[in-house]
Automatic annotation (TrEMBL):
It holds the Pfam family Glycos_transf_1. It comes from the Bacteria. It comes from Nesterenkonia rhizosphaerae. Keywords: Transferase. The keyword Translocase does not apply. This is Glycosyltransferase family 4 protein. PANTHER family: GLYCOSYLTRANSFERASE WBBK-RELATED. Gene3D superfamilies: Glycogen Phosphorylase B. Residues 178-330 form the Glycosyl transferase family domain.
């Protein structure tokens, strides 16, 4: 039995399923398939000391009732509440696992914010947890560098590779526009503004930008989308929030994924695109480079000119498009699975 503690859906990402919660769900399903029963405790992030005490008692009550071998705590809770990882008096207490989707310190740094107390809490949680799991090698390296804990397990997100590849073939003499896809929540860390700046010099060329993800119905996403539709007029196709099936249906019509995030632990959307043979331009210095591997290019997320240059080359070079398409099709045969991620969790028991 594994007790899984995560934020309640309505407390994160405006009530839509975030990448982290989707990761949790997929990993639990893989654990269940392997015969490791899981029980999920979804709670709102505590705001006061009384809330923390209540959550601690709730978790301990669940542990006494279920007697799990592991308690996995999502980093959105655990990295902010090191109290969850203080050893209990009971000798039979289950191992406590901190699952870090995105280090708090890395997120604050990307936002240009300083919060020493938040970093201190995360450091204590990382150091006190029985086990720490990151979702990428980049994330594990960040935790080691920042907090000097060497024993960090890595459970990369899995990908369900379609049996029949239906990606777009490289087009040389087709009048249809090349299709760029950006699937990301409209928040500043996803860096949609860079796409506006990078694509403005290319408005005279034949391409379209498909935008999908939550947050464009409120600021700052709404204002930025309006600017993109104005300055990239005729090129923008805004799809809004798509279901997982809707995202899957997007790849056969896409030539390239764009993910210019200021910080990204991995980027499940990158490997999902790759599973259909769609390459990606991703932000250098982030975990998305790990996800894309050879099936893409890594570009400075703060240098719009570098993206303009690379996109111009993609638009004008059938050779580059063919090279990246072939790399993506090769990589799709070596993508991680959810079963492999589940085995990492099971090894901690």
């Amino acid at each position: 039995m594994i007790l899984w503690v995560e934020p309640a859906l309505d407390s994160v990402n405006g009530g839509t399923v975030s990448g982290g919660l989707r990761y949790n769900q997929q990993l639990r399903e893989a654990l269940d398939r392997l015969g490791a029963q899981t029980s999920t405790l979804s709670v709102p992030p505590p705001q006061t000391d009384d809330d923390v005490a209540h959550l601690l008692e709730l978790i301990r009550s669940q542990q006494r009732e279920l007697t799990p071998q592991l308690t996995v705590v999502d980093g959105l809770l655990g990295s902010r509440m090191p109290e969850l990882f203080l050893r209990m008096d009971e000798p039979s207490a289950p191992s406590q696992v901190l699952l870090v989707h995105l280090p708090v310190a890395a997120e604050l740094e990307a936002e240009g914010l300083g919060d020493p107390e938040a970093v201190k809490r995360e450091r204590t949680a990382v150091q006190e947890a029985d086990h720490v799991v990151a979702v990428s090698q980049w994330g594990a390296a960040e935790l080691r560098r920042r907090y000097r804990r060497q024993e960090i397990a890595v459970a990369e997100p899995g990908v369900q590779v379609p049996e029949a590849l239906s990606s777009v073939s490289v087009r040389e003499n087709d009048d249809a526009p090349l299709s760029f896809a950006c699937v990301a929540t409209w928040n500043p860390l996803k860096n949609h503004r860079l796409l506006l700046e990078a694509l403005r010099p290319l408005v005279g060329m034949n391409w379209r930008l498909v935008l999908a993800g939550p947050g464009a119905d409120q600021e700052p996403g709404a204002g930025l989308l309006a600017q993109m539709e104005k300055h990239l007029a005729g090129h923008v196709d805004h799809r809004g929030l798509l279901s997982p099936e809707g995202v899957s249906a997007l790849w056969p019509e896409s030539d390239l994924l764009l993910l210019p995030s200021l910080v990204e632990t991995y980027g499940m959307v990158v490997t999902e695109a790759c599973s259909y043979g769609v390459p990606a331009f991703v932000a250098s210095g982030t975990g998305a480079v790990e996800a894309a591997s050879e099936a893409g290019l890594a570009l400075d997320p703060r240098n719009a000119h570098a993206w303009t240059t690379a996109l111009h080359r993609f638009l004008t070079s059938p050779e580059l498009r063919h090279e990246l398409n072939q790399a993506a099709q090769r990589r799709r045969h070596h993508l991680p699975t959810w079963g492999q991620a589940a085995e990492v969790i099971l090894s901690l028991r």
